[in-house]
Every structure is written in structure tokens, then in C-alpha cells.
Amino acid sequence: MKKIAIIFGGNSSEYTVSLASATSAIEALQSSPYDYDLSLIGIAPDAMDWYLYTGELENIRQDTWLLDTKHTQKIQPLFEENGFWLSEAQQTLVPDVLFPIMHGKYGEDGSIQGLFELMKLPYVGCGVAASALCMNKWLLHQAAAAIGVQSAPTILLTNQDNQQQQIEAFIQTHGFPVFFKPNEAGSSKGITKVTCVEEIAPALKEAFAYCSAVLLQKNIAGVEIGCGILGNDSLTVGACDAISLVEGFFDFEEKYQLISAKITVPAPLPETIETKVKEQAQLLYHSLGLKGLARIDFFVTDQGELYLNEINTMPGFTSHSRYPAMMAAIGLSYQELLQKLLVLAKEEGK
């Protein structure tokens, strides 16, 4: 296994997050003792064109790579060759493993995974069904409930619903604060914490801007705990982390700027709670058919109750992101983590 294709970018609200994650991983792989032959494949933000990029890595980091036309050439899947076709060079590119470092829509929802399945190429991460399920928060919570893992009380709103009556009934039962969340979006995009009636309409509008279905969810008073898992059948469980906030919630700005948020890894949890988090995370991982990697996030209340929040099948992947930090806390370096993911992809793709 030597030829690795890193896939980045794409038509997602998390496009810039993909660039940051991919840049960090590429730097680590370029300096790896395993001497990989890397191909960098960027997908334009409109998703219309794919390019093989051979220019400076800093241009990916700064999102100027598409302007570097001397080092971009169009590339497209070539199914009959199980690889890609470079039209300008009139040649094929056949990687040993694909590493899609893409977040959110089209990157984590099973879309690109389905393409890779048609190409018959091994790829890092979860398969089509598991990716699609975890991206759809409503379906994820139904599946989790079926195996005994609880989530916060939630209802699903669509544009066809009688929203006002549903919202009023939900708030009458559960009170404020509540959260409005796009059903399919990542990095806390489009999420609003609502504390009064006047905030409902703008919160609903914001959430619907990202997705045609919106979750209305009860606020769970507790600490957000993450659990990173690595593996296919045999699992490596990273250290849990804990997020503490001075105010607000862990939204997009907090996730990537840490304005008032503090992430502690390992999380200062009682042993019984930590064990329960890891057990439920592994149960979800196996039951939902996850492969390669995932970060599974819970809320833990003062009473020790666990509520599933979400599952990220391609969590943020800079060297200082939460998932790599969880693995580093158990002695697995960033480069070692990348190597293991590539090996797992090759094993799963056999």
C-alpha cells in the first residue's frame, strides 16, 4: 500500500473545515516514514469539477488552490479502470486507498462513499449505509433507541408540517431552552439555542436554510462528552474528552476558535461514567455498522444519565482536533493514527 489519494473540498457548508483537516493530514503523511505516494484530489465548492492538485500545500490551507491553474488538472472517476482519468495528461491514476477528508454534506452522508464503492476502491471511514444513517440525526436517534441508547426528547419538523402547533405543544411539555437543529448538517451549522418565544421564528429560518427537515430538541443540562473509536471489528477506544463552556453552546465558532470553550482530555469523569460512555459508544459503533473511525458525542447529566448527541463519521482531523487528541491521550500519535486508518481501509476493502 503506497499510492494514497487524499480527497478534499466539496459542496458543503464545511468546505473550509475540510481544507484545514486535509492540509494537516497531508503534512503528516508527507513526513511519514512509510514514504507514501500522495495524490491530492480537490473537489470545487460547486462540486461540478474534480482536480488533481500538485501545487503548494499552503494554497489548500488558504483556499487559493483553485486559482493555481498551473498545478490543477481536471480528473474524473474511471469505473472500468477502478481509478481516475486525467484528461489533460491522457492517463489513469489508480490509488491503493482513497482517504476522503470531507465533512458534512456529500462527504459524510454516504454520497461519496457510494461513488467509491462503484469504483471498487478501498477508502477510509464508514460505508454508505452507516454514513447516511449518522448524518441523519432523526434516523440516528431512532436507531439508537432501538438498541437501548437514549437521546434528548426531539420532534422532526418539515415545511409540510403544522409547525406552530407542534412547537407550542413541545415547549408546553418541555419548556425553554430548546434547540432548533438542521436534521442533516455538521459542525453545529444552523443550530440555535432558543430561550423565549420571540427567538423561535429566526431560529427556525436559520435551521431550514441548511436542511429541509429540522429537529426541535429539549435542552439537556449536562456536560458534552466525546468518545473516539478506531477500528473495524476489533476496536481501539480513545480517551474521552469533556467540553466546558462559560456561556452559550458548542457552536461553529466555539468548535474552531474556542472563544469561551475549554476541551479537557482525558475527561475528568468518575470511572463508572467513563465506562458507561465507552460501552455505549462501542455498542453504537458495532450495532450501526461503523468502520474505520468515528467520534460519538453524549451529554452526561449531574445524575449520571447519558444522552446521545451525535455521531461524526469523519470528525475534524487537524493534528489538534478532538478526535486525534483522544487517540494521542492513549499514546497513538497523529502519524500512527493516519497509518492505522489506511491499513483498516485496505483490510475492509479486500
Automatic annotation (TrEMBL):
It is found in: Cytoplasm. Mg(2+) 2 binds at residues 310, 312. Mg(2+) 1 binds at residues 297, 310. The keyword Cytoplasm applies. Its main location: cytoplasm. Pfam families: Dala_Dala_lig_C (PF07478), Dala_Dala_lig_N (PF01820). Its cofactor is Mn(2+); Mg(2+). It catalyses: 2 D-alanine + ATP = D-alanyl-D-alanine + ADP + phosphate + H(+). InterPro entries: ATP-grasp, ATP_grasp_subdomain_1, D-Ala_lig_Van_CS, D_ala_D_ala, Dala_Dala_lig_C, Dala_Dala_lig_N, PreATP-grasp_dom_sf, VanC1/2. Keywords: ATP-binding, Cell shape, Cell wall biogenesis/degradation, Cytoplasm, Ligase, Magnesium, Manganese, Metal-binding, Nucleotide-binding, Peptidoglycan synthesis. GO terms for biological process: cell wall organization; peptidoglycan biosynthetic process; regulation of cell shape. Pathway: Cell wall biogenesis; peptidoglycan biosynthesis. GO terms for molecular function: ATP binding; D-alanine-D-alanine ligase activity; metal ion binding. It is an enzyme of class 6 (ligase). The active site is at 14, 187, 321. One of its GO terms (cellular component) is cytosol. SUPFAM superfamilies: Glutathione synthetase ATP-binding domain-like, PreATP-grasp domain. Cell wall formation. Belongs to the D-alanine--D-alanine ligase family. HAMAP family: Dala_Dala_lig. This is D-alanine--D-alanine ligase. The gene is vanC4.
